Prior knowledge:
The protein is of the alpha/beta class and 373 residues long. The chain has 2 domains: 2-201, Alpha-Beta Complex (Spore Coat Polysaccharide Biosynthesis Protein SpsA, Chain A); 212-367, CATH 3.30.1330.50. 25% of the residues lie in helices and 27% in strands. The protein has helices at 33-42, 59-63, 77-85, 105-113, 154-160, 170-176, 250-262, 268-271, 284-297, 320-330, 349-352, and strands spanning 4-10, 27-28, 31-32, 49-54, 69-72, 92-97, 120-125, 131-133, 136-138, 145-146, 150-153, 181-185, 212-225, 229-231, 234-236, 240-242, 300-310, 338-343, 356-367. The strands form 5 sheets. Strands 1, 4, 5, 6, 7, 10, 11 and 12 form an 8-stranded mixed β-sheet that branches. Strands 16-13-19-17-18 form a 5-stranded mixed β-sheet. Helix 5 (154-160) crosses helix 6 and helix 7 (250-262) packs parallel to helix 9. It binds magnesium ion (MG). Residues 219, 221, 244, 250, 253 line the site of magnesium ion. The site of magnesium ion (MG) has 5 residues, from strand 13 and helix 7.
Amino acid sequence: MYDLTLILLAAGNSSRFKIPVKKQWLRIGHDPLWLFVTNRITKMFGFADIIVVAHPEELSFMQQMCDVRIVAGGETRQHSLRNALAHVTTPYVLVSDIARACIDTNLIMRLIDAKECADCIVPALGVNDTVVYGDETIAREAIKRIQTPQLSRTAVLCTALDTPFDYTDESSAIVACGGTRHYVEGDIRADKITRINDLAALECLGAPSLMSFTGNGFDVHPFEEGKQMVLGGVEIESPYGFKAHSDGDVVIHALIDALLGAACMGDIGMLFPDTDNTYKNIDSKVLLKRCVEKIHNFGFVIAHADITIIAQVPKIGPHKEQIRKTLAPLMNLSPTRLNIKATTTEHLGFIGRKEGVGVMATASLHYFDWING
Ligand code: MG
């Protein structure tokens, strides 16, 4: 059937999810949840088109991982949906949330089979418990728990969502503007993963891969007279600091590149372009913190890092312990899993001529284990 587009919403901030990983980035095998669910639902039916809505900051990283069209989300679910609808050319659209990861084919087919019945086809479940509103017990037979995915007539949905009022699902918007809603039997497996306790439901899909990933980083900065020298977040007494757009903390820059390398997330220049004036003279500790936050968001845990500082001057030995104690907490890493080494170049080359400092770093990551915490 070539008249139906699938939209998957994956732009959320996981604000009710009390772990550093965003739920769309929890891993099943190697795939982040958003990709796993996209592939899973895509196989259930011959959709004319598939659109995934992403957080604007995650869009380019997500696009590298698949050929599906990815569009930028907005502030709210409704805003995200409007952005996706602008790309839909089919008369019908099926909208689901990535967090409804365990949807099965039967539910999708029930919606598709009923598509002519109304402007919006909705899975609904009854309520088994007693329901009280204020002090009044309500006849629970009259209560319906509405789920997504929902299948809508595209034109009706576009009109219905052209409003500043924020609806929590498509059918409410469609009914509010005079459209019709038809119910099909819902499925408990379509319930949304909202809180950390809901994660057990994902175990039917698989577990995160136990593989670990290694990245390397290398950076050099020349000395500049009259600047404060900062190495590994530690201020070091010296007649010169480093020439740089930021504070020139060459240790942190190499470390960031190692972390990004292990996560396959590009390099420091992509994350913090030196053409951007926000980063002028910035404390590199802030950059490291932001980088680590991103790595955690994308489903990784830092396991280990090893840094080699190559300097003829200054003497690094007396500062190694302080650097370790400064950097480890910024990475949410035990200091016992961060190693700092120092060497010289035996007076050879630009480092030997005391023109600057070079740093090599290696970092290892693994996926966040959402099953065992
Ligand atoms: Mg640098």
